[in-house]
Amino acid sequence: MPRYDSYGRQAPWDAAYAHETHRHDDDLTALRSAYRVLRRISTLTALGSFVVYVVLSCYAPGLMGSKIIGELSLGMAWGVLQLVVTFAAVSWYGRSAQRSVDPLARAVRERAVPAGRNAGAAR
Q1: Closest C-alpha to 81, from 61, 97, 57
Q2: 74 near 64, Cβ under 8 Å?
Q3: Which tens digits make up the pLDDT trace of 27-53?
Q4: Is the overall model pTM greater than 0.70, yes or no?
């Protein structure tokens, strides 16, 4: 009975192939892990600050209505700060993805499609 690897290809009895497949799986696991960490941090940052804003607006209206400078209330300043926090989370996500996730994805792609063979299809 033939054996199949995790992608449904028939696996040869070659030990080098088994090692390469295991290495490819390790690379994919590292890529998924890096992407998951990046996604969680940026999402929790943006949502966390928004949840704090909503909770304070609901349960501490006196605090959120207090004036900071002239007619600017704490709630209004915090609302504008939400835009800044969201923009910062998105820009951090982009920079971190270029620095940590993109090189891993490039390495996985290069191992999956060897240079020269199907070179145009991988792009």
Answers
A1: 57
A2: yes
A3: 788 888 888 988 999 999 999 999 999
A4: no
